[in-house]
Amino acid sequence: MGLLRFGVRRLLLSLPTLFGLLVITFLLTNYLPGDPLARLLGDRAGSNPQIVAAYRAEWGLDRPLYAQFATYLGNLLTGNLGQSTLSQRPVAEDLTNYLPATIELTICAITVAGVLGLVFGIVAALFHRRWPDVAVRGLALVASGVPVFWMALVSLQVFYLGLGWVPGPEGRLGRGVEAPPRVTGAYTVDALLAGRWSVFGDAVYHLILPSIVLGMFFLGLLARITRASMLEALQAPYVVTARSKGISGFALVRVHVLPNALIPTVTVLGLAVGGLLSGAVLTETTFSWPGVGRYAVDAARALDFQAVLGVTLVIGTIYVVTNAVVDILYAALDPRIRLGG
Amino acid sequence: MTTAADTPTTSTVPSRTGLVLRGSLAAVRSDAALVIGCAVVLAWVVIALTVPLWKPFDPVGFQDLAGRLAPPGGTHWFGTDNLGRDVFSRVMYGTRLTLPIAIGAVTIAVCWGCLVGAVAGFAGGLVDEVVMRLSDIFLAFPAMVLALAIAAALGPSGKNVVIAIAAVTWPEYTRLMRGQVLSIRNNLHVTAAESVGCSRSRVFWRHVLPFGLPPIVVKATVDLGMAILLAAGLSFIGVGAAPPAPEWGAMVSDARTRMDQWWLGLFPGLAILSIVLAFNFIGDSLRDRFDPRMRTQRRRGGSSASMLRRLLLPSARKADA
After folding, report:
1. Cβ atoms B240, B231 nearer than 8 A
2. pLDDT in tens, chain A (341 residues)
3. Could you tell me the pTM of the whole model?
4. How far does A226 lie from chain B, in Å, by closest CA?
5. Which of residues 263-292 of B touch A (CB under 8 A)?
6. In whole angstroms, what is the distance from residue B304 CA to residue B244 CA?
7. Do the Cβ atoms of B232 and B98 come closer than 8 Å?
8. Residues 142-161, chain A, touching B (beta carbon < 8 A)
9. Distance between CA atoms of A272 and B276, rounded to whole angstroms?
10. Which of A85, A258, A278 to mutate to test the interface with B (most CBs of B within 10 A)?
């Protein structure tokens, strides 16, 4: 099967999933027993049937479910995700405000954890069963079981309160630092575009700790996969051949081992995105990071179901699409996947 | 004296349970990770069962406002919180919330997931297709996000956390069980059972399920740890067990506003870490025990990535197939 056909088929396969995702979230927020109105209107207004009826009519809650869903789908096609009862703004507007912060944080986390994870995994494999290997395996082990919200707290206590190396949980910029004019919504990029180096520095300064904390589980996972993959490649016949021809050291690793060892690591990227988006919900709350994770938490607590629906939809979509892209990337790197498919 | 000696059938052809038991005993002898994991879990279970008998202080009722926010010391081993409650007692009592939630959620997910998966595997055709697409959809959410939506909608309580976690984990068991049924039902011994007229349910319970169970047991063990992480995370963001209850995630959440008092968050977090790692240890060892094929793959290395991919990523399975 050609790569193009594989890619198109893989992307098409995610369409029904995306639609189902929409149906599930919609049903979920409509059928579950928590009543958003009762909480929103308070006890007195919530017990007055007239006010409740008027409110339901205003928000279209009195119509049959399928009609509400049809309206929702129609609105969706025009980019309308409904109104947030919590922020009193359109959900789409809230999401455009908060999403860049999450994406910036997630990309930083993937980058930092990706580089460190690869390096740690390679080092561990090259020093198989010696202390660097043991240290990396220990780190990977802890990373697999540590609650990310707890690590956020402890790391703040150590690196902010104790050592003073990083800023406290004050969001994306320090107090008194003005946000750069919005182009992409990512402060680092916008600051560079505006040529404001001090703002760029401050944004990076605020990104460091949340990125590392958020990426920790991915770092552990990647280090473990890279290590295993390297160990296999180091024993492969072509490496033995290369060795017997006298190639050794850095050249051996770079030319013969790494290219083959790195292919499987691509696959964990898809897993990583799911984990990072889950982690973002917990990490953003601790670091007062104004992203969709914290928005989702606030919305869920206030039973603001349009907002929850919007966030779930966006996060689900990002996840489904990333997984499709990762699969295609994997097929591009490893032709065996395509031939088998 | 004679009975033990003249039962050669049992010694030459040991029962299935006998095999598993013997395997487990051998595992305990040779596998340090399994021993450590079991010891830690056992310790927490004992604490959960017996803590009311020896508790130093009442986890909720004891409030010594004069001695609030005291650092760890002789009387209060883990210090006291902002209401003067004993952190050590609260951490110990936390097990009584966390363990039942995790066990309950995983039990529901395993039973429901396996039932649906077995039905899909046996029925095939349209039923199979519908079940698989449905599980695809549930797996298309990052677990925490869907659990958050469900728990928030149901309202904060331990029971609802159980439901939320079970709801996000069942599809993985469905896929696993379906795969097991599909691969085992064509085995010779199943065909033999069917040809002598065994009913479908008998075939499933006696001839398919016992052979399909190992990977499910392994996954369930690891998932106990994951369920604890999820439950603590939900409490941390305020949609889990209600506030005065000594829940580990909620305790870490309280500690956020008092970062100077490091003992408030440190100990509940260590409790979570210890029990999650313990379940991971047990799960990894069991995987090696039950499936030597996977072990050699893991030893050789590289294939662990594709194994992991296939285990965890539904889309990968589809693309690989």
Report:
1. yes
2. 578 888 888 888 888 888 888 887 777 766 655 555 665 666 666 667 777 777 777 666 777 778 878 877 887 788 777 778 888 888 888 888 899 999 999 999 999 998 999 999 988 988 888 898 889 988 988 888 899 999 999 998 899 888 988 887 888 887 777 778 787 878 888 888 887 888 888 888 889 899 999 999 889 988 988 888 888 888 888 888 888 888 877 778 888 788 777 877 777 777 788 888 888 888 998 888 889 988 988 887 787 777 877 888 888 888 888 888 888 888 887 777 665 54
3. 0.82
4. 8
5. 265-266, 268-269, 272-273, 276-277, 280
6. 43
7. yes
8. 142, 144-151, 153-154, 156-157, 160-161
9. 19
10. A278
**Closest C-alpha among B77, B299, B211 to residue A232:** B299
Smallest CA-to-CA distance from B319 within B138, B136, B167 is with: B136
Give the whole-angstrom CA distance, residue A171 versus residue A287.
Answer: 6
Nearest-neighbour CA in chain B from A85: distance (Å): 15
For an interface test with B, give the residue of A28, A95, A150 to mutate (most B CBs within 10 A).
A150
Tokens, residue B233: 């995370």
CA-closest candidate to residue A261, choices A221, A238, A231: A231
C-alpha separations of A276 from A211, A270, A272, A307, A319 in Å: 10, 10, 6, 20, 10
Which tokens go with A19?
A: 């639609």
Residue with tokens 């992307």: A11
Q: Count the neighbouring beta carbons within 10 Å of the beta carbon of residue A307.
A: 28
Nearest chain B residue (CA) to A326: B316
Q: Which amino acid is at B235?
A: S
